[in-house]
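Example (one chain per record):
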Amino acid sequence: MSLVSPVESHRVKSSGDVEVATYLEIAEEKKGLHPVLADESRSAIESECIVVLDFGSQYSMLIARRIRECNVFCELLPWDSSTERLQALNPKGFVLSGGPASVYEEGAPTVNPYVFATKRPILGICYGMQLLTHQLGGVVAPGNAREYGHSVLQKTDVGTPLFDGLPQQSPVWMSHGDRIEQLPPGFQSLGYTENSPIAAMGDGDGIFGLQFHPEVVHTPQGMDILKNFLFKVCGCSGSWTPSNFIAEGIERIRRQVGDGKVICALSGGVDSAVVAALIHKAIGDQLTCIFVNNGLLRKNEAESTIETFNRNLGWDLVYVDASDRFLSRLEGVTDPEVKRKAVGEEFIRVFEEEADKLGKVDFLAQGTLYPDVIESAGSGSKSAAVIKTHHNVGGLPSDMILSLVEPVRHLFKDEVRRVGLALGLPEEMIWRQPFPGPGLSIRIIGDVTREKLHTLREADWILLEEVRAAGLYNEIAQCFCVLTSDRTVGVMGDYRTYGHAIAVRAITSEDFMTADWSRLPYDLLARISSRIVNEVPGVNRVVYDISSKPPATVEWE
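Predicted structure:
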């Protein structure tokens, strides 16, 4: 099918989103399940798809999450996704995110003409609205003043379905430096604010633009606007649920695996547990779970994982102690990217060897999540940046023999947990805090040695023990210790010491794409520090990490 662009490009000045300081907007209670799945084989449910095109906004992921909170299937794709990829999804509508670019700059992101050619509803947010104006014949110009933060939207068209049920005046959250000077032909203003004469626009045929951000909690009626777009404009039904995901996932696994055998990389965490449960429901005894002790686990973790698995699941489990080979592979390695890739490759080699012992094995299943893919630049955009290579994505060797089965590759952590609950997995598995595949190797700054591992294990054990005793384990998304590369001067028993500095990290997060540091009580921090310094030889200082993500990441390496 040939596509003809219905628009011409007009070069007009248009600066995108101004950076917004607030990163965490997802703290409220979530309902239902809102997963994003691979697009190889689509079902009837998946055909009700909304595509969010990412133009670089820090809120792009949040837009996708808001849509999924409405139980509507959606995929977040790079703005430069191919026409073929968009066609394959056959979306019921598009959302154009904000972004930091200016449309007049050389190489600035633009909307694929196919989006307009589909005649499907479109919602442009901030820079997305500027792009709609720019590409459809309107004019965007610098504003008299930047509009940043809270503002009040005054509706000028009470009949638009986008604003159905909203009051005449609504608080909204702005973050922009330009404004719409002239509407594109066929559009009319739907609302204004003090500094934006055109804060919302529509063409009466399903294309809308919003200068403000409906996806953030600072726009109280934002979810109402998004629901109106999804259900009253796009005609979505909101039928995506955990049970639907499980049914579709089982069917997809059966189609992919057929009569083949699968080994599952079991780590003890909720991701691999959910993967194992899904695959076992799909193919039963064709699955064998393998737990590899890479020598980089926390104190008593191997024993605890095996005991929990046998007590709750009881399927075939192979235990492999590969500590020596992993530690040998990491000897002298200090670069965190090299660590991650070395651990990723070594895992694959161990699994391949174990697969040989089981006979003919065709597939390796692992609990890869959407944040792993995004941070490893696995979204497919040529403009995507590698934040860090996850051992199970960018760390995989190119010559691996086994084919991958990754049923939760496009889910967030909280979504995986909902699937786990729907599968009937025990809560001790569901709410276990995440632990990275490279293990303690990326929590030791610098080279990894057995002595450093022992020091870190003991400190981490004390931290987790105290957090559990305080009843805060399930309220914190993740907490752990980092053995820094710094040595500091101290005094113990009237003698000078020159010991290690331990950093304590505790965060709150729902999807691990963004995170905030946890405000642990001072008395709890005092107990943790006192115990670590007194009980862990060679440590004389404890510091607390109060960095959010972004700008930091959850792990230090």
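Caption: Residues 1-45, 377-395 have pLDDT under 50 and may be disordered.
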